[in-house]
Amino acid sequence: SDLWHNHDDLDLHIVEPGGYKIFYPNKRKISPSGGMLDVDMNAGYGSTRDAVENIFWTRNPTKNGKYKVIVNNFSKREETNSGFEIEIEYD
């Protein structure tokens, strides 16, 4: 998951082996490896300072290889608290 404390619209992306990208246009769609973005916060007007985005798999990913994690600042709205945290859990 990705966590930040301002109204910026940060977008969490994961690029799977083979190039499929899990991100906001594919929200709530199961990817080829079984992953899904289920939470996309601060899109539009930036409604919270305790924002989080989440991509998960209900089982181990079905594709072996490298998974690239990207955080895109889609809309910068504030200069304060501009950092973010990424938490990755496996198994």
Description:
The chain is mainly β and 91 residues long. The chain contains no helices and seven strands. It has strands at 2-4, 9-15, 21-22, 35-39, 51-57, 68-75, 84-86. The strands form two sheets. It has a four-stranded antiparallel beta sheet with strand order 4-5-1-7, with no helix packed on it. A hairpin with a 5-residue loop joins strand 2 and strand 3 (21-22). It is elongated, with a radius of gyration of 13 Å. The relative contact order is 0.37. The mean pLDDT is 89.
Short description:
The protein is 0% helix and 38% strand. It has 91 residues and is mainly β. 22% of the residues are buried.
Largest sheet: 4 strands, antiparallel
Mean pLDDT: 89
Strand adjacency order, main sheet? 4-5-1-7
Helical content (DSSP H or I, runs of 4+): under 10%
Strand tally is 7
Number of helices: 0
Question: Unreliable runs, pLDDT <50, ≥5 residues?
Answer: none
Task: Name the overall outline.
Answer: elongated
Structural class: mainly beta
